[in-house]
Amino acid sequence: MQSNLDSFLHCTTPLVQSQFLPKREIRNLNSLWNPWERDTVEYFTLGDLWNCYDEWSAYGAGVPITLDNGETLVQYYVPEDTESGDGETRDSFSDLLSDDSESDRCDGCSSEGGGSEQDNPWLRSDKLGRRYFQYFERSTPYGRVPLMDKINGLARQFPGLMTLRNVDLSPASWMAVAWYPIYHIPMGRTIKDLSTCFLTYHTLSSSFQDMDVEDDIKSPEKKRKEGESITLPPFGLATYKMQGKRVGLRQLRPGPR
């Protein structure tokens, strides 16, 4: 039986439209980040990824919820920049590392609140790439602009936020998205169990693409076919105000360590 938490993860996992990389470009991929020999390679741009959040950012993502009394409803969650429970200013964090071909145009740059490459010695490793973008959200949750407005604003300064491809990104690249409940249908009553907020962590690199090996063994028919959209299930999850009995967590996929 699917839990409410499984339902949330299913409904808020990005499903990104993929494209096929031209064959002449496959041999130019970083062999450390893309070690598999394949005749075809699928990819998506970060702009394609943000498109998945466009409607959710405006109207919320609908999640079917089953209450303890057996009743069902649809709870809507809106994606925003990450909130930390302790109220620190380092609320939201996103880190993108790319290969030299892209990062040379923005060596060690970071947005507001981000640190320089020299602040993190481990980032200097060629195996991890060069940092292109890092972001810390400083606004309080109720003072933040919608997620897509934030992304579009940052992309004016960092155009790679739209154009970089997942095959260009280091395995150390990741993002975190906070989800806040906004309303439920049918409306008309307050339900304490629906006040839970979620924080999902997603890898952005193609290095972890299609790594749900255990699921493929158990359900071969669920294995993604070439040309289908690429899913980005979270490798980590945090919750705030979670309560109630009808929760559970499936095994999360591998991610950057």
Automatic annotation (TrEMBL):
Region described as Disordered: spans on this chain: 80-123
InterPro entries: DUF789
Domain of life (superkingdom): Eukaryota
UniProt-listed PANTHER family: DUF789 DOMAIN-CONTAINING PROTEIN (PTHR31343:SF3), T15D22.8 (PTHR31343)
Name of the protein in question: Uncharacterized protein
Species, as recorded: Salix purpurea
